[in-house]
Amino acid sequence: MAHVSGHSARTDKNLTRMTSLKDILIRRIALQGPISIADYMAECLMHPQHGYYQSATVFGAGGDFVTAPEVSQMFGEILGLWCADRWIAMGRPNKFYFTELGPGRGTLMADMLRATRSVAGFHEAARIVFVEASAQMKAQQAEKVPGASWHSRFADVPEGPTILIANEFFDALPIHQFEKLDDRWLERAVAAEDSGAALTPALIHAGAQLALVPDHIKSAPNGSVAEVCPAGLTVAGDIAARLSAHGGAALVIDYGYASSAAGDSFQALKAHRYVDPYAEPGHADLTAHVAFDQLAAAAESKGAKTFGAIPQGAFLMAAGIGARAQQLAAGSDPAGQRRILGELKRLTAADEMGTLFKVLAIQSTALPSAPGF
Predict the structure, then answer these.
(1) Alpha-carbon 239 to chain mean position
(2) Mutual angle of helices 334-348 and 321-330, in 10-degree steps
(3) Residues paired with residue 19 on neighbouring β-strands, in sequence order
């Protein structure tokens, strides 16, 4: 996600200077010692003044990255029809919470709503809910989707039948990283250089989160790196519990592993390029690959049924995006046809988003099998 972070001024000995997030973190480390990568990610992305999502131009060609809804309207249309199918399978409840986690600019929800206009009763039943913590993002979403309501956490969304979409949400949740040295796991952390001028990686004693790392990863050889996302496991479990209690379905789309393994996927992205994650805190998007098997296990432990994760390209093709592309191309001029085919390739091809991105469905056990899987 992209960004220019804002700075707050403070007065120091009658001199006014800009205080950056880097300054704040270096002072915190000087007082408290190194911080976990999870704490570092949380501050960099969501600090109320300097966080990446609070002040930056995140999405699109002028931002730091492009998400699938920004690539093509077809992505949201296919997901919208999937949601309508699940609503019908639920028995067409006259009220359900149509929920999106981390909805970006609102483009995906707008496309899903447009694609489902002709589904009788769907819009009347839908209560559109965005789970979003960024004030600047909320303003953009309100323009695209009038009538939505907002909550900062999924736990605050009213209970009831739910259809939920999370596209590139889990990758931005804070991770803990561990490194195996001399047959013991240490936690990767963020420290300040002796000069106090820069942030640098460090190793500290492993915290309790190490217990969440699967055993098959813990047995990896010395030099290996393990990652775990406690926040992601909690949210997946909460979604599953909600669906099990009240009925519904969820789709999680993100880049990551169908089967998690040891490895370092922590990265920073700025202006569509990878950058040093410690160089400019608050000015770059920080993410890590999603461990879909761990999310599925967390969901199943709360009584839900899961499908996938499968590659995004395979899911979209099975769900009908090829036919939709042909339909759009038939009504377009040659330039439009080339654009539509280019968008289809971007979303589904193995060398584009088609394989790296995965799709996981979570459903109440009362529903028939999820389409597309």
Answers:
(1) 14
(2) 170
(3) 8
